[in-house]
Write a structure and sequence with these properties.
mainly alpha; globular; 10 helices
């Protein structure tokens, strides 16, 4: 009797045999949030806000929200900490770009999310158009802020431009969150977690539109 073809069976997918592992960013995210239940939560917020401005991949917003939900009356203090430390970290990013880029660029391009040659060419073009508005957008919206702080040093943007745009952008972002949690508490937590990025982009577009409208009218 002729041999009948036997259907080849594919090995079961690894995910069906072993539980899926959390990726490194998810583990970092969970690690950051755990500080909210610690007495060192404010210090952790300061450290994350500072580091995220130059190399750390997790933004401070989730920790700021978690801390503010636990203590709504201190929401504006947490916003202040996040703003000051984020701007200070941005200055460090500027210094890296200005003085240490040749020695550190390979590390950033290889290991830090958002750092690609294409992104840097894009940022350079935007800085030539309007450095202040570009940094303001990066500071306020979900655009990776760290790429712009370091690029500002690489492309020799004035430090005052970086600081003023960062204070306005980072301050608006963190105080928007802090104010909502101060007045409404945990009731707005899920809305912030789900729609913060969309709200930031929408508000920024409206602010820019208002700026150009006023400029055109005057």
């Amino acid at each position: 009797m002729a041999n009948e073809p036997v259907a080849s069976s594919e090995p079961a997918c690894d995910s069906a045999v072993q539980p899926a592992r959390k990726n490194v960013f998810r583990r970092l995210y969970d690690w950051v949030l755990r500080w909210a239940d610690s007495r060192y939560g404010t210090a952790a917020l300061a450290a994350v806000a500072f580091a995220e401005s130059s190399f750390f991949p997790i933004p401070p917003d989730p920790l700021q929200i978690a801390l503010s939900v636990g203590r709504p009356r201190r929401s504006l203090w947490f916003a202040t900490v996040a703003t000051v430390c984020s701007v200070a970290g941005g200055i460090v990013g500027w210094l890296i770009g200005m003085w240490f880029w040749h020695a550190t660029s390979s590390f950033f391009f290889r290991y830090v999310p958002g750092f690609t040659h294409e992104n840097f060419e894009f940022v350079q073009l935007k800085y030539q158009e309007n450095a202040f508005l570009t940094i303001l957008a990066a500071a306020f919206t979900p655009i990776p802020y760290k790429v712009f702080t370091i690029a500002s040093g690489v492309f020799e943007v004035a430090l005052t431009t970086l600081v003023v745009a960062s204070v306005l952008g980072r301050g608006a972002r963190f105080f928007l969150v802090g104010s909502l949690l101060y007045w409404f508490g945990p009731r707005v937590q899920k809305l912030l977690e789900q729609y913060l990025e969309l709200a930031a982009v929408t508000l920024f577009v409206l602010l820019v539109a208002a700026f150009f409208a006023i400029k055109w009218l005057l």
